[in-house]
Amino acid sequence: MFIKKLRKHLKVIFWIIAALIVPAFVFWGIGSAIRARNLSYIGKIFGKKIYYDEFKNTLNWLVVSKYADNVHNIHKYPTIYEDAWRRLILLEEAKKKNIKVSNQELASYIMLMPYFQRNNRFDSAAYRYLLGYQFGIDTKIFEDEARRTLMIAKLQQRIFTNYNPTENDIKNEYLRLNQVVKVDYIIFPLDNFKNLASVESVEIERYYNENKTSFKKPEQVDVEYIKVPIKPFEEGIEPKEEEIKSYYETHKEEFEIKEPGEEEKSLPETTKEKEGVETAKKELSKPQKSYRSLEEASYYIRKRLIMEEADKKAYKLVDSISEVLIDEPDMKKAADRFEIRLNETGFFSTDEPLRDIGFS
Questions:
Q1: For FRET with 213, which of 31, 108, 118, 173 sits at 20 to 30 Å CA-CA?
Q2: What is the model's pTM?
Q3: How confident is the model over 269-306, as pLDDT tens digits?
Q4: Structural domains in the chain?
């Protein structure tokens, strides 16, 4: 009721049109992420400032590696922020220990990930397609986070390996886990004494004034939005063989057979002289590049062309809705006109996940 009055008197309308590019994500016009970018940093670990981009990359890695199979229900995992901070803390400790991960270790780790495999072998085309189009993550950022995961694993392994418990330690731990005791106790239920207590309104007001920060609620908004999913637009789209072949020929570099982590190789810092630099370049260069065949790549090209065409149709509808809203900013009328469901989030703060949408 309050929001309706506020909208009526102040003529404030919150409206967002979201094109559902990936089924798991909705793109917003506003959100906590945008405001976070304006902060100098969002936290500290061992005195080191953690900035927005680093935290965002960590969250993206957790989404892909931990919730990839259930990303539609990511809002059911409210501990994702805690997991991200825990990961960053362990990473800083690994850096302190000077723990390194080689390119070969990184490549082996990524190549064993099941969702990048096809016919039980690593598929570089699937790797780039899933990261770029399904999850919207740059391969360089993904591989950096994968390297971090291996650094943390090495840290944990080092801790476990270097710890040699004595027989006394083992005995004490066994007793702690298995010993049983018998205790006599008396329960005094708090509810039994509530009727004996009386609190004056003055005391309530004083307690409130002294502990206001405990009752502070984060800023909340109630947003109406129209969600335009891409999936319905994909029906009936079938790329021609000529289009698939043309895409393959003009984007052949996407299907180059390359091990993950290879692009991270760089020249040694100690090779400063011109002759040394040229030698290093020759060592890293490959005499011949190899590519996936058109037959192997056609599956991903077809899916990509379908998605791109459906994407255009969806955004065309979004543009039409936008034009209507500019002339008459009434979300319900716009939704009815285009026969699309109007959604409302309900009040939510900028740092909490939304049901059926996830983090905004």
A1: 31
A2: 0.42
A3: 434 444 444 554 555 555 567 878 888 888 889 888 99
A4: 1-28+184-267+290-360 (no CATH), 31-165 (1.10.4030)
